[in-house]
Design brief:
One of its GO terms (molecular function) is 3-beta-hydroxysteroid dehydrogenase [NAD(P)+]/C4-decarboxylase activity. Pfam families: 3Beta_HSD. The protein has about 325 residues and is an alpha/beta fold. The protein has a single domain (about 10-235, about 260-295), classed as NAD(P)-binding Rossmann-like Domain (Rossmann fold, 3-Layer(aba) Sandwich). Helices cover about 35% and strands about 15% of the residues. It contains ten helices and 13 strands. A seven-stranded parallel β-sheet has the order 3-2-1-4-5-6-11, with helices on both faces. A two-stranded parallel ribbon has the order 7-10. The longest helix has 22 residues, at about 130-150. It is globular.
Length: about 325
């Protein structure tokens, strides 16, 4: 993208997203629980639900969502409008208490559960540390499923996975032997029986997916899985915060590495729409997984770095220094 193109880019506002959601239907009035709602993905799911007019929204997490000091607490998508309950998915009684609590004085309990919690330890492969990923990504998922079934009011469970579960492992010791390694282009038509990455994040997310698929249609709960693209970007992104808040040189590498970028607002909307579809057209989506991404153009890292440099100049008129 040229500097002129970047200067014309508009950041979607909560009003923009509310209007986009209205194109797919108005508020449902259902009771929503977003487990992991304090994280980047979870926050945008919650904000999307609030923006379209949902009033029964609960965040369950180990920590409260961070709300910036200059945020508009009166905005329709303001996170404090959602109820917050602290709980640990690895502790059955903790998550059971948080999920089964009625919404205010309505007496109603959850009808939609959106499960975004994950431990992302994608750098670990040795057996003695697998439990650190397994406890959250598998045991925690099993606890959430069990509580959802016991509640009796949950009719839809949306599970956040990732397209990384479909990425083939690199053959590092073979570099140069067979020419340039082809890119990993994955989607809904990627076979499920391909060789996978072997780190504990991937293996435990695959186990979590299997649990969610296995309970589709059991005790009245329909399930669906979203596999977001590899890079999820938003104001709360750790990568964005690192670059934008660091006044010194930001070392980067892999200029030619190309990756899709998914806007956190789009991901929030995807979760809301999948939850809706599990009620409105379950025959099309229940028990299935869907790979999602943002715009169709994938950008190499050197372009992403340039986007940061130009965008921050237009936003706060301050340069961002990057070095490779």
């Amino acid at each position: 993208m040229s500097d002129d193109d970047l200067a014309k880019v508009a950041v979607p506002t909560p009003h923009d997203m509310a209007e986009a959601m209205k194109a797919h239907g108005s508020a449902t009035g259902k009771a929503y629980i977003v487990i992991g709602g304090s994280g980047l993905v979870g926050q945008y799911i919650v904000r999307t639900l609030l923006a379209r007019g949902e009033t029964l929204v609960r965040i369950i997490d180990v920590t409260e969502p961070k709300v910036s000091a200059d945020s508009d607490v009166g905005a329709v998508d303001s996170l404090p409008r959602a109820e917050f309950v602290r709980a640990d998915v690895t502790d059955y009684q903790s998550i059971a208490n948080a999920m089964s609590r009625p919404f205010g004085n309505t007496g109603r309990t959850a009808e939609v559960v959106i499960h975004t919690v994950a431990t992302i330890r994608n750098f670990e492969r040795l057996a003695y540390v697998k439990h650190l990923s397994y406890q959250v990504n598998v045991h925690g998922t099993r606890n959430i499923i069990k509580v959802s079934q016991e509640l009796g009011t949950v009719a839809a469970l949306v599970y956040t996975s990732g397209t990384a579960v479909l990425v083939r492992p690199a053959k590092y010791l073979w570099l140069g032997l067979f020419g340039t390694r082809p890119g990993a282009l994955v989607g809904n038509d990627t076979p499920e029986d391909i060789p996978r990455l072997t780190n504990h994040y991937i293996s435990t997310k695959i186990e979590g997916e299997k649990l969610v698929r296995a309970v589709n249609g059991v005790k009245g709960i329909r399930t669906g899985i979203l596999r977001p693209g590899m890079v999820i970007m938003g104001p709360e992104s750790m990568f964005a915060a690192l670059v934008l808040k660091n006044p010194d040189v930001n070392p980067t590498w892999g200029s030619g590495f190309t990756n899709g970028i998914l806007n956190a607002w789009d991901l929030g909307r995807a979760h809301a729409q999948l939850a809706d579809a599990l009620f409105n057209r379950p025959e099309d989506v229940a028990g299935q997984s869907f790979a999602i991404t943002g715009q169709t153009t994938a950008h190499p890292y050197h372009e992403v770095r340039h986007m940061f440099q130009v965008s921050i100049i237009y936003i706060i008129e301050a340069p961002v220094k990057c070095d490779e």
